[in-house]
Design brief:
The protein is mainly α. Among the domains are: 94 residues, no CATH class; 104 residues, no CATH class. It contains 14 helices and 4 strands. A two-stranded antiparallel ribbon has the order 1-2. A hairpin with a 5-residue loop joins strand 3 and strand 4. The longest helix is centred in the first third of the chain and has 25 residues. The structure holds zinc ion. Zinc ion (ZN) binds next to loops.
């Protein structure tokens, strides 16, 4: 009862833009937020494409400041357990930016290629920031009182009780060898270095996790050390025309469908053997770039000018391509598609 009025019992309630559910879980709020962000990305995409921004970094500024900051609003309260759902927003953006599929570029591949941290990292940051805010509040403030009560409650053993916010936060910290008490100590000592080191540990752990997934994945079996490293490949920070950067991403993703511009694309999965020459060789990029008879007159013969392709499906060279090498590959692929159009 509030002011003599009986409060209505509802299944969910929207407060400050966040849907609160009777279950105390926020899966649905997270999904809803992700869908809204994806729609926003799609709606903005034609404008973003036209803007023709020089670096991928410029697109990430938009992603971080407009999309993700909206997605993560108050997520220190509701997002911690839904990091994987929230991550789908970033994946959606990166896939659109690189335009690579199939195979559908895996989330970890996209992040490693572009040197992006998972949303998880931001969640950790916003949780700690929120904790710091409460830490500095006067003892009479409600959030501080509630935090204290949660702490007392958690210290008394309540057996299989539902997880509360403080437990979730503590569990998140303990994944990286820390705890609420540890962070409180850091706050008490105003130890900025310790905090910075902790966030570096989080970042390294997350990247290592992505690398582990990449190593174990069947779709990226062709990646052998050191092709995937902590340092993203250089095309990610280059100012080359976007079609060349996208081509580089597609090559590294071993895409079976490669876009070369309006209505021009290579679909490797469509044919077993090369549809243009009689070589009966497997229809692959290796064939097109190095073997196909039809392209012979256009290949650079001098060894120093042409990129050398190792047998390992040339991932090695694809990771250190120069703009000129990429242009060369692009031209060969473009010619190949044109030849296909003329013959079919
Ligand atoms: Zn051929």
């Amino acid at each position: 009862m509030i002011n003599q009025n009986k409060l209505e019992v509802v299944k969910s309630y929207r407060y400050l833009g966040v849907n609160f559910c009777t279950t105390g879980k926020f899966h649905n709020s997270a999904k809803e937020a992700v869908n809204k962000c994806k729609q926003k990305i799609d709606a903005m995409w034609p404008m973003l494409s036209k803007a023709n921004l020089p670096k991928f970094k410029n697109y990430f500024v938009y992603l971080d400041s407009v999309i993700i900051s909206k997605l993560m609003y108050a997520s220190q309260i509701w997002g911690t357990e839904n990091a994987d759902i929230l991550e789908m927003t970033q994946t959606h953006f990166l896939r659109k930016l690189l335009n690579i599929y199939p195979p559908r570029a895996a989330n970890f591949f996209l992040r490693l290629e572009m040197g992006r941290q998972p949303i998880h990292y931001r969640l950790m940051y916003s949780n700690i920031k929120f904790h710091y805010k409460i830490y500095n509040m006067q003892n009479t403030r409600l959030p501080k009182i509630l935090m204290h009560e949660l702490d007392q409650y958690n210290k008394a053993d309540h057996g299989g009780q539902k997880q509360n916010w403080l437990q979730t936060y503590n569990a998140l910290l303990s994944k990286y060898g820390s705890s609420v008490e540890h962070i409180k100590q850091i706050f008490g000592q105003k130890n900025k270095v310790a905090l910075k080191n902790f966030m570096t540990t989080v970042a390294t752990n997350l990247t290592n996790h992505d690398m582990k997934l990449a190593m174990e994945s069947n779709s990226y079996k062709y990646y052998v050390n050191p092709f995937i490293t902590h340092n993203p490949p250089s095309y990610g920070s280059a100012t080359w025309p976007i079609h060349l950067r996208r081509l580089n991403a597609a090559l590294r993703n071993q895409s079976q469908k490669i876009y070369l511009g309006k209505n021009k694309k290579i679909q490797l999965y469509k044919f077993e053997t090369c549809p243009l020459c009689n070589s009966r060789e497997k229809y692959s990029l290796y064939h097109i770039l190095t073997q196909c008879e039809m392209l012979k007159p256009y290949r650079v013969q001098s060894a120093c000018q042409s990129p050398c392709y190792p047998i390992d499906q040339y991932v090695q060279t694809f990771s250190y391509l120069s703009q000129n090498q990429l242009k060369y590959i692009y031209n060969l692929l473009f010619l190949h598609v044109s030849q296909m159009e003329l013959t079919m």
